[in-house]
Amino acid sequence: MTIAPAPEPITTDARPRAAGTGPVTTGPVTTGPVAAGSDGEWATGTVTPEPLAALPLPSPADVVALQGVREYPAVSVLCSTEPSARMTRGDARRLAALVSGAADRLTAELGAGPSKELRDRLLALAGDAAGRRTRSAVALYATRTTSSSWSLPVPVPDRAVVDPTFATRDLVRSLHRTPRHVVLVLTDREARLFDGAGERLLPAAGAAFPLARAGRVQRGSRRGGRAAHVEDAEDAGRDAFLRTVDRALGAYLRLRPAPLVVVGARRTAARFTALSRNTGRLAGVVPGSHTRTPLPTLAGLVRPVLEDYLRSRQTEALALLDRRARAGRSVAGMPAVWLAARAERPEMLAVEEGLFYPARLSADGDLLTPASDVDHPEVLDDAVDEVIETVLHRGGWIALVEDGALADWDRIVLTTR
Known about the structure:
The chain is 37% helix and 21% strand. It is an alpha+beta fold.
């Protein structure tokens, strides 16, 4: 996978961010006068009159940029939150406790003076997040030179990680749960195309859409051959229009491949999918006329279709795993997967969502041994995050599956090319 450049720097201040922008910062982080008190409460010198917009959802490019950070200490703080107009007091306490624990570890390892700037960055990120609308989780990332904060649409195991790289597995998981997708809204006379990521739908940039069919609907007498002729002409006009839509869709998907959701009346959607040459990644159909449906409402209608599609992808991943295992092209268990990800050509890494694996590395980085003293500077807090990043960087793909699905493979398995 090519490493994408980092998103445009944005300071983490108290202003709402524009939709779609990531808050990676490369300079000092600024925020309002918010700090974590010793009892885990948020002490605020200024009360924010209105809750701010939620932190942005990470895009694939954002995740790749975060995975490219190599700097010790890289601090990751992940905390589940209750979806709310403002972070609840209980969630704020838990977030404060996680940040406090990370700050204590930094002080113990680096000393109070050398760690102060990084501790201040974490407090600023956490204070900003506490005043915002929340989704299902927040993720804070900070080193001495960069910091960013995100909201996630999926809950996470609460944890603070101090490693040479950021803990991005939950961000990868959120992308799998809310992957980029394309939504085609269709009638037999009109077509609109939207690009979706997370909870957002936006008009597809640079596309030929919207498209409208020229001419009027032909109406004639229902008697005799005249009615049949008019109906045949109408069907031919409809099919010609749908083929035009399909060509424009294909041109867009060739440049920006993604799962496709078709939205339209059952008859029109069925005819389009029968004619289309671009339904290889069809996630499903949302029946009904929705050309004027507000985009947030439309996104809500699309979400269940995507969730069903992703469940089918897990089934496909397990079927692929069975085929590769029979061919002798798979390795199971964390130590073997770690070595194979570095030495072989990775194809697919399947890992249970709940697997965490603190470990020590050999001097050459090839051998992995489990560790229980997670806070020790020589211990990787979670080697699973590291191997996910390795497989992605080497062109493989990730299948995050339900706990228990890989019981016969020691919870993690890698197929090779």
